[in-house]
Structure formats: C-alpha cells, structure tokens
Design a protein that fits this description.
single chain, alpha+beta, Rossmann fold, Tumour Suppressor Smad4, 2 domains, eleven-stranded antiparallel sheet, four-stranded parallel sheet, 9 helices, elongated
Length: about 300
Amino acid sequence: MRNILVLLNARAGTLLDRDAEQVRALVARELGGSGRQVEVHLLSGQNLVRAIRQSGRGPHDTVIVGGGDGSVNLAVRSLDGSGKTLGILPLGTLNLLAHDIGMPMELEAALAALGDAHPHAIDLATLNGELFHTISGLGFFSQMARARETARRWKLWRFLAVAIAAVLALRRSGRMHLDLTIDGKPHSFHAFAALVSVNRFTGPGWRRARLDENLMEIHIAEERGALSMLKAGADMVTDNWRGNPGIVSLTGRSITLTRPNRARSWVSTDGELDRQRLPLNYAIVPKALTVLMPPRPPE
C-alpha cells in the first residue's frame, strides 16, 4: 500500500447525506501517512464503471473500491492479471465479500480496518469464463435479484427491501429441471433454486469462514410442493437452510448446469442479474485475487 487509488460510488446510500469534499478528505487522511500516496475519486454511473475498468492499469499498487457487490465484481474482473491488491469499503446493500473478509460496515471503522489490513490471496470462480467472487444463482435467487431492484425503487429501508424482495421472489419462482455434472459425476433435480458459492458457507449466516478452500459448493432447493417451497425459502432467508431436507448441498471444483429445452436462463451473480447462455459452466480459480483483509479475532 504505497500508491493507492480509491474509487467511491458517490450514489451509495452511505455517502448520499455526507459532504463529498469531507468524505474525500477523510479517506485521504485515514489511508495516508507512512509515505503513502492516496488518490481519491467520488464518481457515479458510467464514470465510476469506466474508472473501475481502467483501474487495472496505471502506477497504483492498491485499488480500493467503495460500493456494492456489483462494483466489487467489476473490480475483480478489471484487476485480473494486473498484480494489484483490492481493498473494499462496503457501501452497498449486502456487501457479500466485504462481510466474508471481516470488513466493518461503517465508513470510519472500515477505513481504520484497511489501515491495519494485510494482503491475502483468495479463491475466485468463473461462470462461462467470467470471474466472480462469491455467489451465482438461478431460480429463486435470480428472481430475488429482480425483486430486490423493484423494492429498491420503492425507496424502502434496505433490510425491509430485502425481506419484501424475498416474498416477491418466492411468488415468481417456478419448477425447474436441472441436470448437473460435478467433477464428472451426473446429477438431476427438480428444483426451484440453485446457488453456487465460491468456497463453502461454513461461517454464521450465509458467510464463508475460509476463502481459500479451492472448492465450490452448489445448493439445490428441491421442488417438493408449495408448502415445502415456502419453508425452504423462509429457511434461506432466516439461515436455517442447512437443516432443511429439501436443500441439497454438493461440492466440487467443476460444475456444469443445464436445463433441458432451454437455451438461456436468468442468473444472478454477485448481485448482478444477467441472461446467460446454457449450459452454465462453473470452475474454481484458486488464490486468484489478492485482497486487503483486516486481522481476524482469535477463534
């Protein structure tokens, strides 16, 4: 961390009510010192996207992105092969990777944590050749992403928006036939959701205790009737899903997923929704990204 580029989403909810110049000065002050050079930009829309895409080039050894999971996903892909280290300021709704690396959710605390952080290599995965950092899902999970965008437009509190999104997603989710090949072994399911995670959810909640297992885990919510679907959906939201017999979890380093008679499917990857061509080919990429990770408390 000698030459740091900081790219902040000016439209992030955490920053909307704060003076832009004060935020810029705060970030530069907290991350500066000890001979570090810090360049801070508050950007939005296409200007932010363009800056993140270009962040893999230039003299900076560290790129810190302040935004949500979509901004972090774009940074992951943009820094691929650059040798640069990624830092995260969690300014989004879910902040999946930021939670897993132990970042505090408040801006001042997160800046302090970055000051004490050290670089660690973590696993990534690819979906049809494109890198992602945490999760990729279809069925209920892709509908959840669509419904969450609808709830956001209602300008509700973020946690209420997520709860309403879950209800809307359950209403829209339908039965799917899924054919899987995991490390060469075939499986078939009738399901209403499938979720692929980079490494396993072994921490509390939908959290990963380790980010370097060189492994993916796929979670299949089997279709067992309306009541079972509601129960499985509720268990996913309330973190009781490991004990639900209708949710099957399998691990592997290579996963191919297809839906008979379908050419494309909606897929939500790191919170970003896209219509992907089938089959969906997932592969683990071990220790593909270096991130700034604050010290973890002793277990």
